[in-house]
Design a protein that fits this description.
6 helices, mainly alpha
Length: 99
């Protein structure tokens, strides 16, 4: 019988996962941390992986942090951007004029 590698997705509430992780011994937690660090280094844009945090201390980074609205989802942004046609700058200026 040949074995196939199958993926199984198990949905678990974040709080339950954190409670499980809290019960792991220190060496297991270090292994989990290393795996997460590796994943973050390869999956996030370089500005997020900035080990010195230099970008977020820059004028632009501080401005972004001040203006960020955590209640806006990525999906909402995609929907709004999907309605735009032509020049993004023109649409933004038009929207400002209407306000």
């Amino acid at each position: 019988m040949s074995q196939q590698k199958e993926q199984v997705t198990v949905q678990i509430p974040l709080e339950a996962l954190l409670n499980i992780l809290d019960q792991l011994p220190e060496d297991a937690l270090k292994a989990v941390k290393q795996r997460l660090d590796e994943r973050l280094q390869t999956s996030l844009p370089s500005v997020v992986n900035d080990p010195t945090g230099e970008f977020w201390r820059s004028e632009l980074g501080l401005h972004i942090l001040r203006e960020a609205d955590e209640s806006v989802s990525t999906e909402e942004v995609r929907c709004i951007l999907g309605r735009l046609s032509g020049s993004l700058a023109q649409d933004i200026l038009k929207g400002r004029e209407e306000s």
